């Protein structure tokens, strides 16, 4: 009888840890980590906006953001053609130099591989979401106008 309880307890602990692990992983799934080797291919995706946070681990202003970026990623999850990414400039210095990051945190919106806007507003989910939606709409319209010119 004692062995049955141990097996049941072990199975419960194992299942609980798997569920917890999946939940923890799921909260970060909406934010995509970009590196020197993935950044340019990702932000060049056709008709896709990328809102990217550039930070370094030692920056007190970056640390102060807390879960803001993950919360924004979760909020933007249902938006078609909009991705939320992040770059660690501590390990990707050449990339951050190429995209002209001079202070941390920096937030930039890219569309079809081009930087279209830099966010300098209030650091809360609603303000950032509004910015991304408005700027993506402008970038989409501009891209469509450019495509129409080519016809």
Question: Any overview of this molecule?
Answer:
The chain is α/β, with parallel strands linked by helices and 151 residues long. Helices cover 52% and strands 20% of the residues. It is built from 6 helices and 5 strands, in the order H-E-H-E-H-H-E-H-E-E-H. It has helices at residues 2-28, 39-43, 60-64, 68-76, 93-98, 125-150, and strands at residues 31-34, 49-55, 82-88, 106-111, 114-119. The chain has a 5-stranded mixed sheet with strand order 1-3-2-4-5. The longest helix is centred in the N-terminal third of the chain and has 27 residues, at 2-28. Mean pLDDT is 86; it is low at 16-28.
Q: Strand fraction band?
A: 15-25%
Q: What is the percent of helical residues?
A: 40-55%
Radius of gyration: 20 Å
State the end-to-end CA separation: 78 Å
Q: Could you tell me the number of beta strands?
A: 5
Number of helices: 6
Would you list the SSEs in sequence order as H and E?
HEHEHHEHEEH
- Name the average pLDDT: 86
Notable characteristics:
five-stranded mixed beta sheet, alpha/beta, 151 residues, 5 strands
Task: Summarize the structure in short.
By secondary structure, this protein is α/β, with parallel strands linked by helices. It is built from six helices and five strands; from the N terminus they run αβαβααβαββα.
Helices and strands in order:
Elements: H1 2-28, E1 31-34, H2 39-43, E2 49-55, H3 60-64, H4 68-76, E3 82-88, H5 93-98, E4 106-111, E5 114-119, H6 125-150
Parallel strand pairs: 1-3, 2-3
Antiparallel strand pairs: 2-4, 4-5
Helix pairs in contact: 4-6
